């Protein structure tokens, strides 16, 4: 069993309407909850490299400093759905 601390990365991605991308979790970990695309760091990785990898895997987007190379999001097997929200109209 792993007992050491884990470091995670997550991305807050906004579209042109300033909505935020959220992914609906599936599987055993956090099933049925909405969250930002991201994942756990691995030893020797840089934060930006891991974040780019996780966003590509989970949302199908290639990211770099505050921009996306792609507007075509797709789901990974870890999520049931995704949506973009306006933070002003979000539920608490």
TrEMBL record:
<dbReference type="InterPro" id="IPR000086">
    <property type="entry name" value="NUDIX_hydrolase_dom"/>
</dbReference>
<dbReference type="GO" id="GO:0006203">
    <property type="term" value="P:dGTP catabolic process"/>
</dbReference>
<dbReference type="GO" id="GO:0005829">
    <property type="term" value="C:cytosol"/>
</dbReference>
<dbReference type="GO" id="GO:0035539">
    <property type="term" value="F:8-oxo-7,8-dihydrodeoxyguanosine triphosphate pyrophosphatase activity"/>
</dbReference>
<dbReference type="Pfam" id="PF00293">
    <property type="entry name" value="NUDIX"/>
</dbReference>
<dbReference type="InterPro" id="IPR015797">
    <property type="entry name" value="NUDIX_hydrolase-like_dom_sf"/>
</dbReference>
<protein>
    <recommendedName>
        <fullName>Nudix hydrolase domain-containing protein</fullName>
    </recommendedName>
</protein>
<feature type="domain" description="Nudix hydrolase">
    <location>
        <begin position="5"/>
        <end position="63"/>
    </location>
</feature>
